[in-house]
């Protein structure tokens, strides 16, 4: 993800992929159970930074989202169909949905009772859902979607623009426009049916299956067939210039650009095929059936630069090439391999930042070691050492400077410890082993240790978990 520019030591601005995630007080409180006694699915999955995000008792397998958006009235009429598997006997379960009006809920075709508290929608099926059973939930809802405003004043969710909506979801914004199990560990496939006035384009993840116009409205059907965390979903709407093409290797590209950003975006976006090819050599085969970008002309209140929405990163304005490199690296690190909890966001950002360093070296600029040295010697930005990336401590730190810079510096120290051959093997084999899955810091540490005789425990302890500026060793 890419955010407000941070400190610089003769380098480009720090990028942060989405809103820094402190969210509202409600998201920082312990999860509630919705008041249902007995076999009730919990509200929250025990995330160390966002304890009330996500829900227990089930795993979503597929989302079918049907959204009809009136741009002029800013009104959404929608239906969400969720196919899920019960992981316990459930008398009730919860979904995350912020705002909007729920008009009806059905479970397996029968009306279900429901109630609302905060961003939790508690559903009580007519019959107990048995462990291991697949069940289908339909939620009909409408209203005016609202963005989430974080305590640090950053913005995410369904952000209204002059010609539609800029839709991003890290860490919790997806619940502003559809009900779901809003936590990275619950990944699912998606189908989107997006209806907007004629002349507007609605862009979602995956591949465009059809586009039909009738009675002054156009419906876009998108299919995303690889597992995706909810924070990576988008349904961005606007008057876009759309360009479709294929890379020389045959990968379909779909690029939607607001005309106001087209000229400034041209150079970076033209390098997309080259970037994908280069990263595929470094990180293994590109993990999805298509790629692309969405560049919008957003309100100035969007403080961050970009978010790695799966298959199509969303850019709040024209990106430079380094930002495209960063967000496309996330397709491997964050999108395909997703952290088990938000405490391991460094697994996303360290690799994406390191990819920028490798690209700059490729283009004749600083080497990764020179990037490391410049950051280590810099004394102008104490935030770099404010907390260890593996222990962010507070929700507001999930996209803080150490997650990016100190995380990337850890990778350079790992490279120095194990040597180039082993390091670049790790870069390729890690996203291959955990493709479409979730992983945490211990998974990565064990993975690296299995590939070297060097004892890596002191390195990870120092750079990932210890407070303050790590001391360098010979």
Automatic annotation (TrEMBL):
Belongs to the peptidase M1 family. GO terms for biological process: proteolysis. GO terms for molecular function: alanyl aminopeptidase activity; metallopeptidase activity; zinc ion binding. Residues 61-232 form the Aminopeptidase N-like N-terminal domain. InterPro entries: Aminopeptidase_N-like_N, Aminopeptidase_N-like_N_sf, Peptidase_M1, Peptidase_M1_aminopeptidases, Peptidase_M1_dom, Peptidase_M4/M1_CTD_sf. Keywords: Hydrolase, Metal-binding, Metalloprotease, Protease, Zinc. It comes from the Bacteria. This is Aminopeptidase N.
């Amino acid at each position: 993800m890419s955010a407000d520019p941070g400190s610089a030591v003769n380098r480009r601005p720090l990028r942060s992929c989405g809103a820094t995630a402190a969210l509202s007080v409600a998201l920082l409180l312990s999860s509630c159970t919705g008041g249902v006694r007995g076999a009730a699915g919990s509200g929250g999955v025990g995330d160390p930074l966002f304890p009330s995000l996500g829900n227990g008792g089930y795993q979503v397998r597929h989302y079918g989202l049907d959204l009809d958006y009136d741009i002029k009235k800013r009104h959404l009429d929608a239906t969400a169909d969720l196919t899920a598997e019960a992981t316990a006997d459930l008398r009730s379960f919860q979904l995350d949905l912020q705002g909007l009006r729920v008009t009806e809920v059905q479970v397996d075709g029968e009306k279900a009772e429901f109630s609302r508290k905060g961003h939790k929608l508690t559903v009580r099926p007519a019959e107990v859902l048995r462990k291991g059973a697949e069940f289908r939930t339909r939620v009909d809802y409408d209203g005016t979607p609202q963005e989430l405003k974080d305590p640090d004043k950053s913005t995410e969710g369904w952000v209204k623009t002059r010609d539609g909506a800029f839709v991003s979801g890290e860490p919790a914004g997806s619940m502003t426009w559809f009900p779901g199990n809003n936590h990275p560990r619950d990944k699912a496939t998606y189908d989107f049916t997006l209806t907007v006035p004629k002349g507007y384009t609605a862009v979602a993840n995956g591949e465009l299956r059809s586009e039909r116009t009738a009675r002054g409205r156009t419906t876009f059907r998108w299919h995303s067939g690889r597992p995706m965390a909810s924070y990576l979903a988008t349904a961005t709407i606007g008057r876009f210039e759309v360009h479709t093409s294929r890379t020389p290797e045959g990968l379909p590209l779909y690029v939607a650009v607001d005309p106001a950003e087209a000229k400034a975006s041209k150079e970076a976006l033209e390098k997309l095929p080259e970037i994908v090819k280069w990263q595929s050599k470094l990180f293994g085969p590109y993990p999805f059936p298509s790629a692309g970008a969405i560049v919008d002309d957003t309100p100035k209140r969007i403080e961050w630069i970009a978010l790695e929405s799966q298959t199509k990163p969303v850019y709040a304005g024209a990106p430079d090439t380094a930002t495209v490199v960063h967000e496309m690296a996330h397709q491997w690190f964050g999108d395909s391999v997703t952290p088990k909890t938000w405490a391991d966001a460094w697994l996303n950002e360290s690799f994406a930042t390191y990819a920028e360093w490798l690209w700059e070296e490729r283009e004749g600029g600083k080497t990764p070691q020179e990037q490391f040295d410049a950051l280590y010697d810099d004394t102008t930005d104490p935030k770099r050492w404010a907390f260890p990336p593996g222990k962010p401590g507070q929700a507001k730190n999930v996209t803080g400077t150490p997650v990016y810079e100190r995380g990337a510096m850890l990778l350079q120290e790992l490279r120095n410890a194990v040597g180039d051959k082993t390091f670049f093997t790790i870069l390729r084999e890690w996203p291959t082993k955990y493709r479409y899955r979730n992983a945490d810091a211990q998974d990565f540490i064990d993975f690296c240790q299995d590939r070297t005789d060097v004892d890596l425990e002191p390195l990870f302890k120092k750079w990932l978990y210890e407070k303050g500026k790590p001391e360098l060793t010979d």
